[in-house]
Amino acid sequence: MSYLIGIDIGTSGTKTVLYDLEGNAIAQAAQEYPMRQPQTGWAEENPEDWWNAAVATLRCVIKNSSAAPEEILGIGFSGQMHSLVMLDASGCVLRPAILWCDGRTRSECDEINARVGAQRLLEISANPALTGFTAGKLLWVRRHEPEIFAHCRHVLLPKDYVRFCLTGVLATDVSDASGTNLLNVAERTWSTELLEKLELDPAWFPPLLESCELAGRVTEQAAALTGLAAGTPVAAGAADNAASAVGTGTVLPGSVFNTIGTSGVIFAHSDRPAVAAGGRVHTVCAAVPHGWGFMSCTLSAGLALRWYRDQFCAQECLEAEQSGVDSYVLLDRKAAAVAPGADGVIFLPYLMGERSPLLDETCRGVFFGLSARHGREHLLRAVMEGVAYSQRACLDVFRKMGLRPETMKLCGGGAKSPLWRQILADQFQLPVTTMASSESPTLGAAILAGVCAGVYLDVPSGCRIVHDGGTLERPQEEAARIYDDYYPIYTALYPALREQFAALTQIEA
User: Fold this and answer.
1) Which residues are tagged catalytic?
2) Taking a C-beta distance cutoff of 8 angstroms, is the pair 93, 85 a contact?
3) What is the pTM of this model?
């Protein structure tokens, strides 16, 4: 037998899956780690936690399968985008990684616009200066932590750091580099102009590869830690959503998928680069050579539900533990007992600020329409519906760009929820289908590893192993009508509160 491994370095944890060459999951493991918030709107993680989780999950999948290390033909990575990893000359981590959902860099984004010009930045990087992107984080460290900045010699993204630990090779791929504000997205190269204008050393930025290219091989030291065979090929891999595009077969122009993970993303494949809707939708290099993607990002999707569970559902979590049921399954049942519209409660899912389609790091989460008759189950359903309202607003932008999907593929943790799938179908007014693999990022990473190892001719050929999961939710007419009534209220709330969000940020500062 022969196998491939996909590793997803996520925000809440790392997932590692061993696949056969037909895309069947043979063994899988996951390990969580903490996200720290030193201040409101900040988010950091320790890169060492990612590596430790990768080691633990690799050992687990090898132990829990019949695969011999030599039968694993290749390894691929998927990872959270934008997060800043800074290394010194010896390859040691200088500070905790500043994550994609961190909103501290508004002043630095203004500085980028002043140095480069907002329009020129869009022309080169295909995206505006955003607080989530990597360049602003570097400028923040330069301004606030000059002693750390002075020791920086290498800048990596999360999956690239773990791959560096596995192979000893510094590299990144073009899909992940697209989220730095430093890449010429059309040309798929680091932008000399942007680096010069921002006074960043080009030597800090690693070689660029296509996602399916060989980045390195497992070292003897890493092999001893993980149980892998030394010399196993490791592909460059891709940013999480670009990898999910491969894992859902979204690799042809016009194909679209939606993922509800920590964030919520709609991703459409294209054969040409373009600046989309003034930057309200991001343009990135796809994991397919000569391909690009248009991508929206709601910062708090699954994160919002996890926040609500952790803060307000201790009773349900205890009940789930005692009955041997996953806590999210129990919460799904509780929320399903409430009618569509949550009896008038509307949730704005801006717990970490927002990116798509609002581009405002100052906005905050809101429950609107509360009355004394509402219980926790109403708020629970409102959280799920609020994320769906946000995804609907993003889909509206895609539709204005001329993209009109007839169905929506759905992946991520949210795809496991029958209720969330139905809410999305009703909101989108589209049939929603799931994928056979519940872990599209790891499957996409494994396919990229297979192309790298010569198992598949190219990425589209590898995607022939991707199959729909058989679950289909069709929009319900009455529920869709109810959401149509509430949706204009949802979209009016942010403009009504925008000034108050900004004022609250000033008080917090």
Assistant:
1) 240
2) yes
3) 0.88
